[in-house]
Amino acid sequence: MALSGALKLTDLNDFITPSQECIKPVEIKKDPKKRGGAIRIEDDGTYTEGGVVLEKAQITLQDCLACSGCVTSAETVLITTQSQEQLYKVLAANRLAVAEGRPDDVFVVCVSVSPQSRASLAAKYALSMDEAERRLTGYFRSLGVAHVFDTTFSRELSLIEMG
């Protein structure tokens, strides 16, 4: 069996040096007078809290090794190719292709939602699981996503395929 021509094995070293992106992207300095606030990711990739731009965290090798939340190079590829920013870029490109009459340039975008995420959102907004699923599906469809799958579906499908 031959490998796809699109795949290239170039760097098999999974060690990520501390200078690369980390899963702990910002350092939050606690202010005893201030109560917690929402951290937003802006369009340019910066993190803000209450309108204040947060500093990038400086992670030492010791911090990195003690974290046990490492992102390997394979996971880094997934994070960069399946990020929120990448999703918005593809959806915007799809809208442009449709507007310009180029249907062959439209990507079919699929989103998967875990039951845990759906349950968390349902609890947060006092919704039933079914209502949370309907609202999530409606939201993603309004963005231009073609298919929204529950990851339970993919788990069951893989069991059928293996069985």
Oligomer: single chain
Biggest sheet: strand arrangement: 1-2-3
Please mark out the parts with pLDDT under 50 across 5 or more consecutive residues, or reply none: 1-20
Question: Could you tell me the number of beta strands?
Answer: 5
Our estimate of the beta-strand percent is 5-15%
Describe the model.
With 163 residues, the protein is mainly alpha-helical. Helix content is 42%, strand content 10%. The chain contains six helices and five strands; from the N terminus they run E-E-E-H-H-H-E-H-H-E-H. It has helices at residues 61-67, 73-81, 84-99, 115-124, 129-143, 151-162; strands at 39-41, 47-49, 52-53, 110-113, 147-150. The strands form two sheets. A three-stranded antiparallel beta sheet has the order 1-2-3, with no helix packed on it. Helix 4 (115-124) packs across helix 5. The chain is extended and about 50 Å long. The relative contact order is 0.09.
Question: What would a concise description of this structure say?
Answer:
With 163 residues, the protein is mostly helical.
List keywords for this structure.
163 residues; mainly alpha; three-stranded antiparallel beta sheet; two-stranded parallel ribbon; disordered N terminus
How does the SSE layout of this entry go?
Blueprint: E1 39-41, E2 47-49, E3 52-53, H1 61-67, H2 73-81, H3 84-99, E4 110-113, H4 115-124, H5 129-143, E5 147-150, H6 151-162
Parallel strand pairs: 4-5
Antiparallel strand pairs: 1-2, 2-3
